[in-house]
Amino acid sequence: MRDELLAAVDLSAYYGERKAVGNVSIAFRRKAVTALIGPSGCGKTTLLRCFNRIHELSFDARVEGSVLMEDQDIYSAGVDPMAIRRRIGMVFQRPNPFPTLSIVDNTMAYGGRGLSRAQKQERAERALRSAALWDEVKDKLRSSPLRLSGGQQQRLCIARAIAAEPEVLLMDEPTASLDPIASAVIEELMASLAERFTIIAVTHNMQQAARVSDVTAFMLADESGTGRLIEVDDTAKLFTTPSDRRTEDYITGRFG
Amino acid sequence: MTAEPRFRRLARFVSPADRGFAAIVVAGSTLFALLILGLFAELALGSWPSIKAFGPAFIWKSEWDPIASKFGALPMIYGTVVTSLIAIVLAAFIGIMAATFLAEFAPRWLSTPLSFLIELLAAVPSVVYGLWGLFVLAPFVRTTIGPALQHILGWLPLFSGPIYGVGMLTGGIILALMIVPTVTAISRDVIAAIPGDLREASASLGTTKWETATRVVLPAAKVGIFGACVLALGRALGETIAVTMVIGNRPAISASLFAPGYTLASVIANEFTEATTSIYISSLIELGLILFFVSMIVNGLARLMIWSVRGSERTAV
Amino acid sequence: MASFAGARDRASSTRYKRLGRRRVYGHLGTALALGCATVAAAALLAILGYVVYQGIGAINWAFLTQLPHPVGVSGGGVGNGILGSLIIIGTATLMAIPIGLLTGIYLALFGRGAIAETLRFFSDVLSGVPSIAIGLFAYTVLVAPLKHFSAFSASFAFMMLMLPLLVRTSEQAIRSVPQSVREGALALGMSNARATLRIVLPTAMPAIVTALLLAIARVTGETAPLLFTAFGSQFWETNPSNPMAELSLQVFTYAISPYPSWQAQAWGGALLLIVAVFALSAGARFMLSRAMRGLEA
Known about the structure:
The complex is a heterotrimer. Chain A is α/β, with parallel strands linked by helices. Chain A has ten helices and ten strands.
């Protein structure tokens, strides 16, 4: 019914006394790629980490406001953050495969409770195929993920996240630590994953945002260092005819 | 959604599995804390009869007569201090020089195996040092080191009197061997942590490597090296078995380093199982309590000094 | 060298000579430092060499497997001491692992407050407490009340000796697992318990095993607390509530005995102890290199 799966309402995030993200309200369209862009320190990563309640793992971190998933506030009392994180997967800035688990065990690390052995095998294969990694690892499923290249490790992390079949996939600068070729593979992957998942991706790279996203949100830190949402629009429109002057300055490189 | 930040970390253990996990973890560490408190409490409790009977005079009375139930710790404190001082003087000199060599002068192919050998020295069991001390070092002190020292320095009371072989000097030498690895390993790490630009600055003034090492690098590392020595001193104070085997075990204060003596630890080792009266046992436990406090203070100091330079909380070797 | 060449033009010949003398001092100093390093290393070789020389003759199958013989009867061995060491140290290890790991986990996960700081401080204090004082503690809680010596009280003392190293190393090993790995696990919806036990702890394991091996090596060479806990025994004792023989204790007893045949056995036992301790240290070094490799990747 509703076109929006996930929304932040007047959301602020703090580290101790420092307000890192201030009063952000934004809604994310189902099965679309939304890019969060902005200069470093604008709070885009912090905002992303509020959506699956990973933000609160940082020391002294807290959140005000709410994040609605299908009209339920994921920060209300009685909501299990573990259940939220199963519905909202995450891919991190640097590949972080679990060092002691094999490639296939990494893929199925979320548990796969209630699945038979064969079903798990099948699901792992499906996830690895979706992450465009299957052909490269099918002969070494039992070996350590640390032998893979950085790009392969990142695709393994994507496979690990989508094996749990979440509805939303958060990606925190997923290509930041990769070379251009590996980045291109991940970007293609994002486009194909958007058919099944609602993707929210932080990126430091405007060209990347323009290439992969349907919607782009621009954030900027105000003078007190608090990240504010400046503008959200269809990517095509935001990059050609932004309505806010600050957005225009940023995308034309006149910023800072 | 404001929450008091301090307790958020614990509060996040919300699922039943997490609560059980947190409970077990807290239980385990509580047990650990109780063990440490128990150690202190039991030593204090066990010493109580002796503390009540002798008061603070226990520390400066020099009579140790189990038959008359008169106990004073002075001879053992003296023996402990003398042997540890001999040990730390020898070990500090050898250890710091060795560390300087390993960190500043030795090529890699030499420093790695030498470090390895010196650190292995730390792994040799105490009882093996004692055995070697008793059968090799003590005779050597009696026939060679002792007479030589007496020949040169015999006019000093320190080197007068008969040489038995076993005695405070032998105990001190054995302790020195046991703590050299501690001094060397930590000093080497501290020296290696001194920034390289200091050395380059010194070398650019046309100094030799030796001058750079002794005038620039060692002074910069001195707090950490001092800490290493204090830590080693703490080990020497509490070392038991090796000293017990070579010190001669006599509760007397003698000026001569060749004379037999006793340390706090060795008197406990030697007499505890033979102690019959409860005041005797209690006095021995009080010696243990004194040892506990002394080593606690010495170790605390050493760690503070080592951390202040090394800057990390890496526990010492 | 360039600045030196520039200075040489202006320098008088005496000044040049002074540098020559400084060079000589430099060489002498270096030689002194080398000498000290050699003395320390030579001391080890002297001790090792002598123990091997004296001990190797005592070691044979009977020495490893038989009970001690009474004075005057030749032969006999330290079989019961070896068995006792295994039982006492094994029990101590089994007790130290859970307490040490749980405390390490506690400090790593919740270790920011005053309670944790106090716990760390006390753990460091404990690592400096002389083993003989810990032996007294084991005596007052486990021997005196029951009125008899026991192998278990020795294990208890050894456990106390192992704990500080285990606690601090497991804390640091768990902390050194990248936060991103832990977050990765939690982001999949794992509970904290599962993320810690299944993902974080295995990653930290090589470093923890290193510490465990070092702790075992330390107590293997430890004798003092045994004097009034395990006490020693002439028999094949396996019941932990009875007095038990232990190898290093046997070495001590034999060494200070007046009988040459026992003293010969002491050398044999000393050699066994050294082999055991060095093997454990070598194992620890091997695990450490694995731990380092794991962290690099």
